[in-house]
Inverse folding.
């Protein structure tokens, strides 16, 4: 048996549907915890029907009363805070839960991964190698009303040095050991920290801040993040080497995390995007297209083209 949790609103429902369908294609004995806010009744119906068709289980969890008035940065949706509440949402002794962002895509059987040894750890997660790359830039971050330099933020405000950043994990995939988290009141600690801190990467920094030393850092194949080209180019060679087989589809990662979204970048050949689109056709959202999937036009020194429904009409 596996508990798997997602958090989303109507904007992300079509993509959550693909994540869920991808899980169901490779896994049995799943109970979903679907945390939502601003979700249409029709979305609840569509997504329930996907899970029903595989005879698996689900709980819909209304999160509209939680996390109001918190900083959400450019994400503009409070859904990103939802995983912080999982220790009190998913019940049961010796329980675990796998939290997945609604921009992830599962490519295989999760059983062994889900049941790995987590003794003494709050959770397992993958190092945020994209952030390590961004740390080499002078990118600016929004921090409430203020703007700060990314290096200044991590080094001086969060006080995380280089060694700490090697353990800084991405929160799009979190395998939580709920007993250990409950025993140590981690949820309350996270909630309290939100009152006295502004986190530039809200949920992710909060979880990192509190769980830091209690996290099992695992291989990138469990949260293979698809990065912007410039972010990729700045990666240390060691990471490029490790990630290249997944990027070129020579090997299948277990979980892909589309930081670059296939639905916003239909013209790009993102890793496993063909398979992603294939799985989308198996969901009730198969005919729903993003603006970019319907129409793309560009007239600039970088290129001039017009694309309609993923077909190039002209390109100069
Ligand atoms: Mn994500």
């Amino acid at each position: 048996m596996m508990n798997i949790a997602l958090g989303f609103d109507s904007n992300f429902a079509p993509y959550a549907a693909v994540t869920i369908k991808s899980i169901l294609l490779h896994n049995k004995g799943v109970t979903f915890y679907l945390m939502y806010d601003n979700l249409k009744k029709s979305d609840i119906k569509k997504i329930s029907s996907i899970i029903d068709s595989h005879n698996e289980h689900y709980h819909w969890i209304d999160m509209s009363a939680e996390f109001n008035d918190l900083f959400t940065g450019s994400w503009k949706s409070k859904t990103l805070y939802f995983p912080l509440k999982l220790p009190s949402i998913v019940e049961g002794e010796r329980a675990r839960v796998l939290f997945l962002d609604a921009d992830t895509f599962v490519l295989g059987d999760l059983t062994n991964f889900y049941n790995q040894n987590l003794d003494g750890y709050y959770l397992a997660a993958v190092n945020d190698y994209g952030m390590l790359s961004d740390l080499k830039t002078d990118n600016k971050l929004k921090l409430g009303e203020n703007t700060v330099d990314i290096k200044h933020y991590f080094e001086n405000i969060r006080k995380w040095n280089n060694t700490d950043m090697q353990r800084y994990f991405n929160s799009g995939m979190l395998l939580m050991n709920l007993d250990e988290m409950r025993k140590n009141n981690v949820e309350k600690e996270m909630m309290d920290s939100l009152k006295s801190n502004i986190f530039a990467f809200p949920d992710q920094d909060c979880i990192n801040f509190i769980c830091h030393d209690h996290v099992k850092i695992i291989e990138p194949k469990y949260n293979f993040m698809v990065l912007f080209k410039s972010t990729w180019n700045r990666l240390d060679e060691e990471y490029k080497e490790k990630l290249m087989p997944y990027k070129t589809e020579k090997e299948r990662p277990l979980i892909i995390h589309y930081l670059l979204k296939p639905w916003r970048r239909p013209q790009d050949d993102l890793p496993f995007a063909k398979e992603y689109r294939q799985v989308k056709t198996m969901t009730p959202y198969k005919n729903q297209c993003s603006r970019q999937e319907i129409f793309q036009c560009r007239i600039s020194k970088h290129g001039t083209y017009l694309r309609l429904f993923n077909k190039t009409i002209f390109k100069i």
In short: The CA atoms of residues 13 and 165 lie 32 Å apart. The mean pLDDT is 93. The longest helix spans residues 13-26. The chain has one domain: 2-285.
